[in-house]
């Protein structure tokens, strides 16, 4: 058996245990997910400053006070699921802008990889380089060596309002828009 095969088996087992727990315990589950403890809804979102491939080279959460933020974590640039998810956010970007909402992607890839990914896919929203996983860990979205596919909605005051842990890349952007509409109503 190879080490990568063993890792895949452990990952699948952990995911299965998590899913069974969700089915059995439902809403009584603690704010825990594969990737770590989750920030409670209604609490301030963890502050961060990370390098990016756009603008002045760094972005902080505080830069977006006064508007909604979709902060989505993803495993790796140029992989099929991550590419599809990014494409869907780009496709729906005008709808997010209409709702005064900034889309921001975060992964452990470096700034150069993000720049190539944005150029390749025509992405017009920032991608942040969390190369050491510190911000991903703060949000409960880290499984070394990569970020988990989790998304967080942060309100204009910097408060955590929603989290998406079972993300399906093909429909995720539309799910986020629907929930954003509910929260903004």
From TrEMBL:
Thiol-specific peroxidase that catalyzes the reduction of hydrogen peroxide and organic hydroperoxides to water and alcohols, respectively. Plays a role in cell protection against oxidative stress by detoxifying peroxides and as sensor of hydrogen peroxide-mediated signaling events. Residues 39-185 form the Thioredoxin domain. It comes from Adonisia turfae CCMR0082. Keywords: Antioxidant, Disulfide bond, Oxidoreductase, Peroxidase, Redox-active center. It catalyses: a hydroperoxide + [thioredoxin]-dithiol = an alcohol + [thioredoxin]-disulfide + H2O. One of its GO terms (molecular function) is thioredoxin peroxidase activity. One of its GO terms (cellular component) is cytoplasm. This is thioredoxin-dependent peroxiredoxin.
């Amino acid at each position: 058996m190879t080490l990568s095969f063993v890792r895949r088996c452990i990952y699948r087992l952990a995911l299965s245990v998590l899913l069974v727990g969700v089915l059995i315990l439902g809403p009584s589950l603690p704010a825990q997910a594969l990737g770590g403890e989750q920030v409670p809804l209604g609490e301030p979102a963890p502050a961060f400053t990370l390098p990016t491939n756009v603008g002045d080279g760094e972005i902080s959460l505080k830069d977006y006070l006064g508007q909604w933020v979709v902060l989505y974590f993803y495993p790796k640039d140029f992989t099929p699921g991550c590419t599809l998810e990014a494409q869907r956010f780009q496709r729906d970007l005008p709808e997010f802008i209409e709702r005064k909402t900034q889309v921001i992607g975060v992964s452990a890839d470096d700034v150069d990889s993000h720049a190539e990914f944005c150029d390749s896919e025509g992405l017009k929203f920032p991608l942040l380089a969390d190369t050491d996983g510190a911000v991903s860990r703060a949000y409960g979205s880290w499984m070394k060596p990569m970020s988990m596919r989790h998304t967080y909605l942060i309100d204009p005051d910097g408060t955590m309002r929603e989290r998406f842990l079972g993300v399906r890349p093909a429909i995720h952007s539309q799910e986020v828009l629907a929930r954003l509409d509910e929260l903004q109503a």
